[in-house]
From TrEMBL:
This is Leucine Rich Repeat family protein. InterPro entries: Centro_Cilium_Assembly, Leu-rich_rpt. Residues 217-262, 407-459 form a coiled coil. It is found in: Cytoplasm, Cytoskeleton, Microtubule organizing center, Centrosome. Keywords: Coiled coil, Cytoplasm, Cytoskeleton. It comes from the Eukaryota. It comes from Paramecium primaurelia. PANTHER family: LEUCINE-RICH REPEAT-CONTAINING PROTEIN 45, NY-REN-58 ANTIGEN. GO terms for cellular component: centrosome.
């Protein structure tokens, strides 16, 4: 539903579907829409997640009147073959194709090579951020050898060797220079044709030769005077035109001198940039060496911490094993001692218990006898109460004396048994105190080791935080680079629009000198804006490299690439300005 609404909202001649998630069904819908609406000549499908099969369906539905196709940040891959078939058809006149970051590989470039050999309308092709490689670059160079119309080709960030990349750039520059020379030659011929017009000749009439009359001679004299005046007027006009041409030439010479001064300033600036680049490279190598040393020290310290952590863990495990072994040994020894004490004292306790039982039996018998005696004396209590009491007291004293000795012996043995039990309890208490003391020592050592491990973990965490901060800075830089790349793409699009406007103005009959002047002004403004953007990116890279404390291979590669691009653009600008000055001179 969203895709259908977006398609219905499009207005000719521009079809813009950026950042739409198009699966195969979405590509079918877009293809049907393009087949039904042939008025769209500028098609933009940036970042729509289009695969190769969906792109083939879209290519089959593009109108022959289409001029631009922007399909960057997708996953076209092998689907580029369908586009090559489209461009090899003479009825299609696509002029600008953008296939940046589309997983195009070296094998796909063979088809692009065939297309370049046969196509005559394509002027701009962007293949940046793909997987072309050395083999694909050779295919592209072969195709460019048979193509004279392609004025712009971007193959950067494709792992292409520098030699092949230089040859491709030179071939594109040859196409640009040949086109510019052809335009200049046609303009000069037209200006010469306008300036040097043939002088009108005086027609001879029969009256000047055949009629010797005075009136006729007078008329001829008047006509000759009129012809002389006309010739003088034409000569004055020619002088004025020559003066105007000389003024224009002087203005052009002054402009050439100013441009030569600008070129000298650019050369001086370029030399300063080269010296600055050498200084930055020296500082970068020093920073890289310091970062390598810091990285090695960090790795060594991290290895030491890990080794120490492993050793401490082993020590803790050994202490725990030793503690458990000692605890089990102490428990075993205590159990053996208690079993031995029980084994030693159990027979004695059994003997004492048996003797106590026998005494209790004797006491029961005594009580029974006493009861019988009480019964007997109660029967005889009438007259012999005093004698009975005396006998009873004597018997009681004798019985008590008889059993008191045995009871005292039993009490002494019971006291000795209690003392032995107390000694055993004291020994077990001392053993428990020793065990508690060992447990406290072990817990203290464990806490110390855990504190050290926690400190090392905090250090490692701080290191990870620093690494994450650097990665965040790198991501910010990459995002800034992407924004600058979009600016550069917009500048390239403006250049193409400028060429298109100049062609339209030329068709309307604008003067060649005004065309070249307008072209130079626009090229200079766009080139200046492009250099300012890239110079801003270089300054940002330098600031980020100076703020970081370590090595970063991505930043270095980006910085060297930008410096090389700026150097090449300055040299090309100098060469182009000299060539234009020579042509204007």
């Amino acid at each position: 539903m969203k895709l259908q609404k977006a398609l219905e909202a499009q207005k000719a001649p521009n079809l813009i579907l950026s950042d739409q998630i198009l699966n195969e069904e979405g590509c079918v819908v877009v293809a049907q829409f393009l087949a039904q609406n042939t008025q769209f000549i500028n098609i933009e499908l940036r970042g729509c997640n289009i695969n190769g099969r969906g792109f083939e369906r879209i290519c089959r539905s593009i109108s022959p009147d289409a001029r631009t196709l922007i399909a960057e940040w997708n996953a076209i891959g092998g689907g580029v073959s369908a586009l090559c078939d489209l461009l090899m058809n003479p009825s299609y006149q696509l002029q600008l194709v953008d296939l940046k970051n589309n997983r195009i590989q070296a094998d796909h470039c063979a088809r692009i090579c065939q297309m370049l050999k046969q196509n005559t309308s394509l002027q701009s092709l962007n293949l940046k951020w793909n997987e072309i490689g050395e083999k694909g670059a050779q295919y592209l160079l072969e195709g460019l050898n048979g193509n004279r119309n392609l004025k712009f080709l971007d193959v950067s960030c494709n792992k292409i060797p520098e030699g092949l990349a230089t040859q491709i750039r030179e071939r594109i520059e040859q196409n640009r220079s040949s086109d510019l020379m052809a335009k200049n030659s046609t303009g000069i011929k037209e200006s010469q044709r306008n300036v040097y017009q043939p002088v009108k000749t005086i027609p001879k009439t029969a009256a000047t030769t055949n009629i010797p009359d005075r009136a006729v001679k007078k008329n001829d004299a008047i006509r000759v005077a009129q012809l002389k005046e006309q010739i003088d007027q034409e000569l004055r006009q020619n002088r004025l035109m020559n003066e105007e041409l000389t003024n224009r030439m002087n203005a052009l010479r002054q402009e050439i001198l100013s441009k030569e001064q600008a070129v000298s300033m650019a050369k001086r600036h370029f030399e300063e940039e080269v010296t600055r680049k050498s200084i930055i490279e020296a500082e970068y190598t020093q920073v890289k060496r310091q970062f390598d040393e810091l990285g090695k020290a960090s790795d060594y310290r991290q290895q030491e911490v890990m080794n120490e952590y492993v050793a401490k863990n082993k020590h803790v495990l050994a202490l725990e094993n030793e503690y458990m072994h000692e605890l089990s040994q102490i428990r075993h020894d205590n159990k053996q001692q208690i079993d031995q004490i029980n084994a030693n004292w159990q027979p004695r306790l059994d003997g004492i218990q048996s003797k106590f039982n026998s005494l209790m039996k004797a006491n029961d018998q005594y009580n029974q006898q006493l009861l019988r005696m009480k019964e007997f004396f109660l029967k005889m209590r009438l007259d012999h109460d005093e004698n009975v009491k005396a006998v009873e007291g004597r018997l009681l004293i004798e019985e008590k004396a008889k059993y008191n000795h045995q009871i005292e012996l039993l009490k002494k043995k019971e006291m000795e048994t209690q003392q032995t039990l107390k000694r055993a309890e004291n020994e077990s208490q001392s053993i428990q105190d020793d065990m508690q003391r060992l447990e406290t020592n072990l817990t203290r050592d464990r806490q110390l080791i855990e504190e050290q491990i926690q400190q090392e973990r905090e250090k490692v965490h701080q290191t990870h935080l620093q690494i994450s901060k650097r990665s965040i800075k790198q991501e910010k830089l990459i995002n800034n680079n992407i924004v600058l790349d979009h600016h550069i793409d917009n500048l390239i699009r403006k250049i193409d629009e400028t060429f298109f406007i100049l062609n339209i103005q030329k068709d309307r009959g604008m003067d060649d000198i005004q065309q070249r002047r307008l072209l130079q002004e626009r090229q200079y403004a766009l080139h200046k804006t492009n250099l300012q953007l890239q110079h801003q990116r270089i300054l940002e890279l330098e600031r980020l490299m100076s703020s970081q404390e370590g090595n970063n291979i991505k930043l270095r590669a980006e910085y060297e690439k930008l410096c090389h691009i700026v150097q090449g653009k300055v040299q090309n600008a100098v060469i182009e300005t000299c060539r234009l000055n020579l042509q204007l001179g």
